[in-house]
Amino acid sequence: MKNALLALLLLLSLGAGTMRAQDPSACPTPQPTSKGNGLVAGVAVDGGGTRYYFPDALLGGFDCFEQLQSWFPSTISSTNALNPKHLVVDMAYASEGTATFLNVVVPAAGAYTLDFRYAFQEGLFPGVKDRPEGITVNGVLITNDMHFPETGDFESYQDETIVVPLVAGQNTIQMTNIAQQSVSRVDSMTVTPFTGAVPCEGLPNAISGLNAQAASTTQINLNWNASTAPMNCGSVTYSVYRSTTSSFTPSGATLIASSLITPQYSDTNPVCDTTYYYAVTAADPNGTSSTSNQVTVATNECPAVGNVQINAGGPEVDPFVADIDFAGGGKQNHTNTIDLTGVANPAPMAVYQSGHTGNFTYTISGFNHGSSHTI
Fold first, then answer.
1. Residue 362: which of 324, 326, 312, 313 has the closest Cα?
2. pTM of the predicted model, to two decimals?
3. d(C-alpha 259, C-alpha 135), whole Å
4. What is the pLDDT of residue 32?
């Protein structure tokens, strides 16, 4: 019995090193569920703050791992945890893991400090000295790069803080893994009022409801739902991207408008009878939101073209335009008189006194697809 207990304590002290990845098909049925529901009320602490323990959070998105014959999401014992049960959440290996508190209650709207207490050593990730996390408040991404430096030991805890806006009453706060090597011991989150100058630390909401409609052969109108910036981040501006390729990646090469202050834009540079793809982003002083959904729309058909009259090889001779839309070949011009008595409705004499020689082509745009014309 003593040997078994020592073996168990050794495994617990190794922490993250005791995890081994499983094939998803090897996960138990039903799939593992979170032990917490995220609804447990916080505990009042000195200084007017409220503390929430991570084992009470709603855990999700965890990969399937086995630890001492139990399955993630799970909690791990930690001697130095503030949690009265000395339990913490290990988020180390879940690349898409989330821990969500659904019942963070504050008396008034305003800025609050979130204090996260955590610990980790390198473990199975040698050289990884920082394990950043994402923080989302009430559905708004505050940051996807909150830093959690190595503490040097799984039982050496320290704190990292961030200032966020909360509404009066109930709030939802979520920590999200952004890499597989995530924080391996997360003990608690303490929420306290912030009294200093509030920095802009968040990104605008991602654009939703993007819609595009063809207004003419050369204009497409776009509109979308307005985005909002986090507290103290000022107004939001928008950028519009366009491509003729579906599922394109917005970049400087596809940017057609920026610094827009209203959620609408009229693109007046398309060409007729062409399909376009659009995406929009929002920005505040802290950075740019994620990209909106992409929409596709085609401009109206090109207008039917009437007679095209080109003076091949020569200048404008009304009603013939000067030589255009050609490629290749040579030209010839002369002043010989041409006998036009056998020609019905002849062109002006000058038209017959110039021409192309050799191999050449004309490419004339503006005709509807499939239409027939006499040359």
1. 326
2. 0.54
3. 26
4. 67
